[in-house]
Write a structure and sequence with these properties.
This protein is of the alpha+beta class and 565 residues long. It is built from 21 helices and 18 strands. It has 4 domains: 8-115, Rossmann fold; 144-205, Dna Ligase, domain 1 (2-Layer Sandwich), CATH 3.30.1490; 211-332, D-amino Acid Aminotransferase, Chain A, domain 1; 348-565, Carbamoyl Phosphate Synthetase, Chain A, domain 4. It has a 7-stranded antiparallel beta sheet, with helices on both faces. It has a 5-stranded parallel beta sheet with strand order 3-2-1-4-5, with helices on both faces. Strands 6-9-7-8 form a 4-stranded antiparallel beta sheet, covered by helices on one side.
């Protein structure tokens, strides 16, 4: 049951928006404030950013536009005297601040209780030495690593582990200060950068090329657990998850792999004593079922926001309620208002998250992607097929692209190098490589992208090539009557191909460009012509709703998306 003694709660907000920490923490904080409001609890928010939803009028009862730093937070606590504090909804900044307040004795001094995940559990996940020890207690494999506090210790650890290694700054957000090192020279440069962000630097054996898998797990104080969503990075380990295309649910795991990692995630969250939501990240050997736990985020994260929107399950809202003492079985599904929140969503669609970069704004920044995050945002696309969701997403990222194919010609001097050394244009490099004859196996060896994804990319290329076989239609359009033309395009072969292209995410403009219609019509008119053909042939999208139970409750409708399946 909920805590009746909690009347006022302080929430550490999302803080300044910056690369590595953006709108996902505004989303989670706003959801938590909504949960507090529903319980009639007075909410106090600290967030210096006025351009957020959570600082809007009426979301929190009291707002302090102050930095999320221990000295400012202590002054607010002294004035407001909250009964409890929520640390997990403002990203790494809020988490670090909360730990500092705990270690300084500020929370104890003013009698402020940490709601949800205990501070010691947060420390156990943030301090690498403690983290490895806690997971060793239950026989869960972690990446072999050393926590170092000087450059000399870093050098010693790297030689013990053997190159290549990865350096990661502890307590850092978005992979700040991290990078792969192949030799001593690279090690010294990376160590200096890492120590500029954190007093503790982790030296880990590189598992570059392994699959990166994530599970979003929820636990209440009664030890009830669910895995709300699992996700798979299209790129292998070595590229930060915020820099990679992410697919939910995972597409390339076997049933055995999926359930093995799910069971481990539940085992980990129970052992650490996390209450609310957490994110478990794995490295999975593509050649076997061998795995390593990369890290556990004992807070709402970028992946949590994606999982919430992908499944319709309000992770942050539920996590806040669990922090107040509720059990999962006591909470209702916020969509249907009748069924329990104690369930695992089942997805009959595919969600693709694609990062958005704006590297041209920053002079001197390398375009290569790695373990440190450079993306400034992301888009999420939903479809019934991976190809459809991917192409929808690529049209939305603001790079002037129309999908995986039929974009303006991209000049790539050395395709093999561009595949091996990923940049913000990587997915389009794969498209270009396939067009000039690179095979799936050849691209797999250069990128380590799973062959399943490469086969899906190739499927899009194949549809595009089949459309091009009909490009001679442009020769007749100018001379044919409309009725004659309709008879021509009503051939079963063309109708089936047009329908297939729409199912797999082709826009009307992409189809028009593949058919070479731009040679006789303006860009806009070419797309409109294909659209008119579709309507004549009754090839029209269907509106789908994520939570089908919500159809009985029209006032509580959830996310909608359009599909041709």
């Amino acid at each position: 049951m909920e805590r009746k003694d909690i009347k006022k709660v302080l929430l550490l907000g999302s803080g300044a928006l910056k690369i590595g920490q953006a709108g996902e923490f505004d989303y989670s904080g706003a959801q938590a404030l909504k949960a507090l409001k529903e319980e009639g609890i007075h909410s106090v928010l600290i967030n210096p950013n006025i351009a957020t939803v959570q600082t809007s009028e009426g979301v929190a009862n009291t707002v302090y536009f102050q930095p999320v730093r221990s000295d400012f937070v202590e002054r607010v606590i002294e004035k407001e005297r909250p009964d409890g504090i929520l640390l997990s909804f403002g990203g790494q900044t809020a988490l670090n601040c909360g730990v500092e307040l705990y270690q300084k004795g500020v929370l104890e001094k003013y009698g402020v209780e940490v709601l949800g995940t205990p501070v010691q559990a947060i420390i156990d996940t943030e301090d690498r030495d403690l983290f490895v020890k806690r997971l060793d207690e239950i026989g869960v494999k972690t990446i072999k690593s050393h926590a170092c506090e000087s450059v000399e210790e870093v050098q010693q650890a790297a030689h013990e582990l053997g190159f290549p290694v990865i350096l990661r700054a502890a307590y850092a957000l978005g992979g700040l200060g991290s990078g792969f090192c192949e030799n001593d020279e690279e090690l010294l440069v990376q160590a200096e950068e890492a120590f500029s962000f954190s007093p503790q630097v982790l030296v880990e054996k590189s598992l570059k090329g392994w699959k990166e898998i994530e599970y979003e797990v929820v636990r209440d104080r009664y030890n009830n657990c669910i895995t709300v969503c699992n996700m798979e990075n299209l790129d292998p380990l070595g590229i930060h998850t915020g820099e990679s295309i992410v697919v939910a649910p995972s597409q390339t795991l076997t049933n055995s792999e999926y359930h093995k990692l799910r069971a481990l995630a539940i085992k980990i969250i129970c052992h650490l004593g996390i209450v609310g939501e957490c994110n478990v990240q794995y490295a999975l050997d593509p050649q076997s079922e061998d795995y390593r736990v990369i890290e556990v985020n004992a807070r709402l994260s970028r992946s949590s926001a994606l999982a919430s929107k992908a499944t319709g399950y309000p992770l942050a809202f539920v996590a806040a309620k669990l922090g107040l003492g509720y059990g999962l079985f006591e909470l209702k599904n916020s969509v249907t208002k009748t069924t329990s929140a104690f369930f695992e969503p089942a997805l009959d669609y595919v969600v693709v998250k694609i990062p958005r970069w704006d590297l041209t704004k920053f002079h001197g920044v390398k375009r290569e992607l790695g373990s440190s995050m450079k993306s400034v945002g992301e888009v999420m696309a939903i479809g019934r097929t991976f190809e459809e969701a991917l192409q929808k997403g690529l049209r939305m990222i603001g790079q002037g692209m129309h999908g995986f194919v039929e974009n303006h010609e991209i000049k790539i001097p050395d395709i093999a190098t561009a595949l091996h050394e990923p940049t913000d244009m990587r997915v389009f490099v794969v498209s270009k490589a396939m067009k000039v004859g690179y095979g799936i196996e050849q691209i797999h060896q250069l990128t380590k992208i799973d062959r399943w994804f490469l086969q899906k990319f190739k499927h899009i290329i194949n549809i595009d090539q089949r459309l091009k076989e009909f490009s001679y239609i442009t020769e007749f359009i100018q001379f044919m009557e409309k009725t004659e033309l309709l008879e021509y395009i009503e051939s079963p072969e063309f109708v089936n191909l047009l329908h297939e292209a729409k199912i797999y995410g082709f826009s009307d403009f992409q189809i028009a460009r593949a058919l070479n219609l731009e040679t006789i019509l303006s860009t806009e008119k070419a797309g409109l012509l294909v659209r008119s053909w579709r309507k004549e042939l009754s090839i029209m999208p269907i509106v789908n709703q994520i939570d089908t139970l919500a159809a009985e409750y029209p006032a509580q409708t959830n996310y909608l998306y359009m599909s041709y399946l």
